[in-house]
Amino acid sequence: MRIYTRTGDEGKTGVIGGRVDKDDIRVEAYGTIDELNAFVGEAIARMNPEKHADMIRDLTEIQHELFDAGGDLAQVGKKRQYKLTADLVNRLEEWIDRYMAETPEIQRFILPGGSPVSAALHLCRVLARRAERRVVTLCREQETNDEVRRYLNRLSDFFFAIARAANVRDGVSDVEYKRGGQVFR
């Protein structure tokens, strides 16, 4: 099977329901989600299968959901049922609370870094924020699944929580931002 089709050589790409320019905000939004998904895979690859088993499980589920999110955003015109729902946003909140329960109280902003696993998860966090910004623009300009925007907003919080928990499990302290005051009480 060939993986190249040559159909995009003129700057257009296929979406569910038609073709659009490759720099269309819809393509930019789901393309940024695809980038995030690749970084989630990289974070998983850094993890110890025993120490991080639950994290690997949760992150693998998120990879499937990111693929679903891209599919939801790739729809124009006639709509099929969306895959990303409010239930997934609620489940992310439960996961955030579970991982934050493993971490010490936070009093200052945290710098990205710590263990290699935590640093990779912080990259996922900032990519989730970028994807969210692209989806906000898409939602403002075109009809799409608004739950993707909410999911990405919560997902960046999830990556912050799991990055902190990874540092705890790896025996590495969070790096606090020292030039500011105590912001969390």
Automatic annotation (TrEMBL):
Pathway: Cofactor biosynthesis; adenosylcobalamin biosynthesis; adenosylcobalamin from cob(II)yrinate a,c-diamide: step 2/7. Residues 3-165 form the Cobalamin adenosyltransferase-like domain. It comes from the Bacteria. InterPro entries: CblAdoTrfase-like, CblAdoTrfase-like_sf, PduO-typ. It catalyses: 2 cob(II)yrinate a,c diamide + reduced [electron-transfer flavoprotein] + 2 ATP = 2 adenosylcob(III)yrinate a,c-diamide + 2 triphosphate + oxidized [electron-transfer flavoprotein] + 3 H(+); 2 cob(II)alamin + reduced [electron-transfer flavoprotein] + 2 ATP = 2 adenosylcob(III)alamin + 2 triphosphate + oxidized [electron-transfer flavoprotein] + 3 H(+). One of its GO terms (biological process) is cobalamin biosynthetic process. GO terms for molecular function: ATP binding; corrinoid adenosyltransferase activity. Gene3D superfamilies: Cobalamin adenosyltransferase-like. Its EC number is 2.5.1.17. SUPFAM superfamilies: Cobalamin adenosyltransferase-like. Keywords: ATP-binding, Cobalamin biosynthesis, Nucleotide-binding, Transferase. Homotrimer. Belongs to the Cob(I)alamin adenosyltransferase family. This is Corrinoid adenosyltransferase. It comes from Polycladomyces abyssicola. The lineage of its organism: Bacteria, Bacillati, Bacillota, Bacilli, Bacillales.
